[in-house]
Amino acid sequence: MLSMGQPHRAVPLTGAMCLAVAARIDGTVPNALMRRTPREADVRLAHPSGLLPLAAAVRREGAAWVADYVVVYRTARRLMEGAVLVPARRLPGS
Predict the structure, then answer these.
(1) Structural domain boundaries in the chain
(2) Predicted TM-score (pTM) of this structure
(3) What distance in Å separates the CA atoms of residue 11 and residue 16, rounded to the nearest whole number?
């Protein structure tokens, strides 16, 4: 994936969601390259910065494929921790 003309170090979430859906659609290149897993198993995208698990469900409606949902699992990590000291407010006459 390219971001502002440069290769992205990870996988942008919008691209990852589209790739997860494509991996679930029979006959696509991502589906052909994907390891055979149960349909309910997560789609795991490996990239230089790690592994991104996603859930995706698709269904066939006539000749078209419909994406029912895509779930992105993210973890939050603490970037900083700190404390703010706020002086006690003195009320008039105290």
Answers:
(1) 2-72
(2) 0.71
(3) 6
Amino acid at 38: P
| Tens digit of each residue's pLDDT (9 = 90 or more) over 45-91 | 888 778 889 999 999 999 999 999 999 887 666 666 777 777 777 77
Residue type, 17: M
- 10: number of Cβ within 10 Å: 15
The four Cα atoms 7, 10, 14, 20 give a dihedral, to 10 degrees, of: 120
CATH class of 2-72: alpha beta
Entry field: residues in the chain? 94
3-state per-residue secondary structure call for the chain: CEECCEECCCCCHHHHHHHHHHHHCCCCHHHHHCCCCCCCCCEEEEECCEEEEEEEEEEEECCEEEEEEEEECCCCCCCCCCCCCCCCCCCCCC
